Automatic annotation (TrEMBL):
The keyword Transferase applies. PROSITE patterns: THIOLASE_2 (PS00737). Pfam families: Thiolase_C_1, Thiolase_N. It comes from Parafrankia colletiae. This is propanoyl-CoA C-acyltransferase. InterPro entries: Thiolase (IPR002155), Thiolase-like (IPR016039), Thiolase_C_2 (IPR055140), Thiolase_CS (IPR020613), Thiolase_N (IPR020616). Its EC number is 2.3.1.176.
């Protein structure tokens, strides 16, 4: 297979863009990526457009990518719409990688865009709730509104209930405390303060996080990723195309995408083992990591899953400062989903934008001084006790 490189990236700020459409956001990120790569739209024959819940929030179905990218110059290329829960963006990137790696094209682009804000917040929560097995919830009663059952009567995403349940089990098993969960938020906000595209840039103390409104114990509001909008894009290409684009070269060492099986080994364990094997690295080699912290406890759980910390020692690793600004391995230097934001269809692409900028030395005050190897971990939906989709991507500065 052909080595694949990231030629250029682009990303909008993540926030509540009440006055912008999916098309506006997607076009913005796409144009940035094309400019960064030094290529024109007609030089990109394959386009993968990721959007997760546009049908539920905006009503646009079937041809979301063709509509969103209508005025970018990309129409006329092979354009494939990608929907794979919160892993939609990384799934689009995986397909772009496969296209170049297989020799089908010199370049391919992955664009992720999402509009989650809506005047009726219940619409946003219904969109989140669709990422579970609704048949399982509704059983054989096809008269039931499965989405309504999944959402329930609360004022939060169903996934926060799942994260809270997992957090309680994790705390019981490891001795982690609610203060440890708050410390995740503090770290994320410290990074986000230096990221002009992050949704939340105000720094918080542990005490302020704990004193915030409770969503479902042990989660307070800052421990939950926010509703927001945004887009991110990246162009992948061959080494020849990367050399033509100029600047430091960033190569894809491994790209793994898998689905959940509900039986051990679960998606995370399988994908991590495969990615490390393909790349010929282990967790100790990583300089920067973007992981799927849709809620604060997930970061601690994924420290163990990614082998950054031994089982039971995730909270200890966090408290040591090794994953913080100035530490040895930056985790979620973008601010993560908690602070950077989580417009779900864009999140996977945004993780790869952050890693690319770190490896190219373009991250300003949050720059890791020796960034050479980065990993992105992006999970989507749930199928039983497993992630419905899970992606691991490893990038290397060469």
């Amino acid at each position: 297979m052909t080595d694949v490189y990231i030629l250029g990236v682009g990303m909008t700020p993540f926030r509540k863009h009440w006055d912008r459409t999916v098309r506006s956001l997607a076009a913005d990120a796409t144009e940035q990526a094309l400019k960064d790569a030094g290529v024109s739209a007609d030089q990109v024959p394959y386009v993968y457009f990721a959007n997760c819940v546009g049908g539920l929030v905006t009503g646009q179905e079937a041809i979301r990518g063709q509509v969103a990218l209508r005025h970018t110059g990309l129409l006329g290329s092979t354009l494939i719409n990608v929907e794979n829960a919160c892993a939609s963006g990384s799934s689009a990137a995986h397909l772009a990688w496969m296209t170049v790696a297989s020799g089908q094209a010199e370049t391919a682009i992955a664009v992720g865009a999402e509009k989650l804000t809506h005047p009726d917040k219940a619409v946003s929560f219904r969109a989140y709730a669709s990422g579970v097995d609704l048949d399982e919830i509704g059983g054989e009663d096809y008269a039931v509104d499965r989405l309504a059952v999944a959402v329930g009567t609360g004022n939060r995403s169903r996934f926060m209930d799942l994260y809270a349940e997992n957090a309680r089990a994790f705390m019981d098993a490891t001795g982690a405390t609610q203060e440890d969960l708050a410390r995740v938020v503090v770290k994320s906000r410290q990074f986000a303060a230096h990221n002009p595209r992050a949704q939340f840039r105000d720094q918080l103390t542990i005490e302020e996080v704990l004193a915030s409104r409770e969503i479902v114990w042990p989660l307070t509001l800052p421990m939950c990723s926010p509703i927001g909008d945004g887009a991110a894009a990246l162009i992948m290409g061959s080494k020849e195309a990367a050399l033509a684009a100029g600047g430091p070269l960033v190569r894809v060492r491994a790209s793994v995408l898998t689905s959940g099986t509900e039986v051990a080994p679960l998606a995370g364990e399988r994908s991590v083992a495969k990615a490390y094997s393909l790349a010929g690295v282990d967790a100790s080699d990583l300089d920067v990591v973007e992981l799927h912290d849709a809620a604060a406890p997930a970061e601690l759980e994924y420290y163990e899953a990614l082998q950054l910390a031994p089982v039971g020692e995730a909270a200890k690793l966090l408290a040591s400062g090794e994953t913080s600004l100035g530490g040895s391995t930056y985790v979620n230097s973008s601010g993560g989903l908690l602070a950077k934001g989580h417009p779900v269809g864009a999140s996977g692409c945004a993780q790869l934008v952050e890693l690319t900028e770190q490896l190219k030395g373009r991250s300003g005050a949050r720059q890791h001084p020796r960034a050479r190897l980065g990993l992105a971990h992006n999970a989507g939906g749930s199928i039983g006790a497993d992630s419905a989709a899970l992606s691991i991507t490893i990038l290397e500065k060469v």
